[in-house]
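[09:14] KT: can someone run the structure on this one? pasting the chain below
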Amino acid sequence: MKNNDKLLYQGHASVRIVTVEKKVIYIDPFAGKGYDLAADLILVTHAHFDHCAVGMVRQRPDCRIISFRDALEGGGHKSFDLGYVKVESVEAGNNKNHSIDECVGFILTLPSGVTLYFSGDTSKVGQMESLAEKNIDYAFFCCDGVYNMNGAEAAECARLVKAKHNIPYHVIATDSGKIFDFDAAERFTAPNLLLIEPKETIILEKS
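[09:31] RB: done, C-alpha cells below
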C-alpha cells in the first residue's frame, strides 16, 4: 500500500484521503476516528454540524479549507487547482432540508488520475447526468432516506453518473446515534457497488 493513494472511510459522510505524495485531505469531518494526520486540505459540503467539525482536525500551517461558501462565492460552482489535487464543486441539495444555494458536492482529481465524487447531502440534481463525462472512478452517494434521497433514488443517480465504483455513505440519519448501518447501506442497489464500512481503508486505483 506504500505507493498508492489511500482512502479511509471514517463513518457517516467523513472521509480521509492520503495521496501518493502524502498530502492529507479530509471531506466533511465529523464521524469516527482517523483525525491524527495533519491536514493539507479540508473540504466542507455544507453547514450542518455533522459535516463541518473542522476543529477535530489537526491542520498543517498551510492547510487550506474550502467550504461550500468558497465554492459558491460569486455565483456558479468554482474549481480549485492546488497542484496535489484538483477540486471541482458541483450541484447538491435540492430537497427541503438542503438548499441548492447552500450545498455543494465535490469532484477530486488526484495526480495519479484517480477521480472521486462526493455527493454531499442531496437529492437528485440536474447536473448529475453530465457527470458521466468525468469518467469518475469512485462515487460516494448519500442515501439516508430521511434528510436526503433514499437508496433507490441514490441508485438512480449512480446510474446517471456511471462511476466505476459506487459507494453508499451517510446511510442513516445522525439522530439514530449511528455513523453507519450495513442494512441501510445494502438498500443502495446501484451497479458497480462497493460497500465500505467505518475504519476500512481502500487503495484508490485508476480504472
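[09:33] KT: thanks! The chain has one domain: 5-197.
[09:34] RB: yep, looked fine to me
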